[in-house]
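tool_call: predict_structure(chain=1)
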Amino acid sequence: MRIVILNADYPRFLSWMYRREPNLKTASYAVQMAGRNASLFGVADFYSRNFAALGHTAIDIHVNNPWMQSTWAREHGLNFEVPAPDDIVARDAFPGWLQRAIAPFKPALRPLARKIGLSPRLDAQSEQILLAQIEDFKPDLVLNQDLFHVDTRLARRIKQICRPTMVGQVGIVPSRGEDWSVYDLLISQIAAVVDFFRQQGARSEVNHLGFEPAILDVLPPAPSRSIDVSFVGAVSADHQRRVAQLEAVSRRHDLKLFGSGLHTLPASSPLHRCHQGEVWGVEMYQALRASRVTLNSHIDMAGPEAGNARLFEATGIGAFLLTDFKDNLHTLFEPGREVATWRSADDCIALIDRYLKDEPARQAIAVAGQARTLSTHTFRQRVETILRLAERT
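tool_result:
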């Protein structure tokens, strides 16, 4: 089977990657792809390499990477020049107070945002390059991991080219008012999202995120555990519970915060002094490994369900994870043995106090959590599930 995996990257990550390696912009498509995969950011090539290991031919397309996409076009004789994106994410142009005010209304506002051009989407030339790549590769299956850049309208154009099985993957409830019938299967780690799609008449199933064990073979040596408490991720108007928890922790412990979104917080937030900058891929894993305790807190819209990438990244890398309690967490990890769980900010602080003083207990939970992830939550297993589900379409 020939499989294409579509993905989109944060503009801030793209700016970081090409700033770090200035010559990458003018390198061949293959060299740029190798550099992107070597960063280990996001899902890198974790899906495609596991599809390939099962005997399929699989490629990744990073649909919103203008340097990589325009290079592919030139190498295939196409006269497209895709403009480089701004170094700052478009949403950063909105002041923090406005982002905080509109956060509760985002699901209802998404259709309007797309209509007036504020929602992520590809420009016309980027769409043409993507469609040319689909025409060139002629996939039997397309796994679209960004339902916003590659919306249902564009998915239909892809479907018309070679009639592939279309699989969409998303972790939040997408825009309402879309016709999802173009997809043969929609998957999500969140059961509420699956329910949403089913209510729209689309076939949908739960399939969680995962961890790629090969990461352990290519990371630099593990750093010393010099960080008492860390959090890696965004803080923004979409993470109000997370922000409240982290602010409470920061008043008691020397919290190291790695991530984005500080501009959306009031100047009075204590998280400003905790900020260590952004880390991507390899640097993120090293920050997790350097932490005695690393925290997890799901985005507000996840509701009572666990399933974010940090669950698997932290445990897979062997870190001790203190995560927010969710109703379904026990289906993924055994609380108290494979991960520790908090239910309130005070509870979180008390557990940090306890485990910072008890290294054997921390180590036992970290070892058990890693064993669970490596045995149950790998990308190989997720890919096998996707193939099994797709066969039923």
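agent: The first helix runs from residue 11 to 20. Proceeding to next step.
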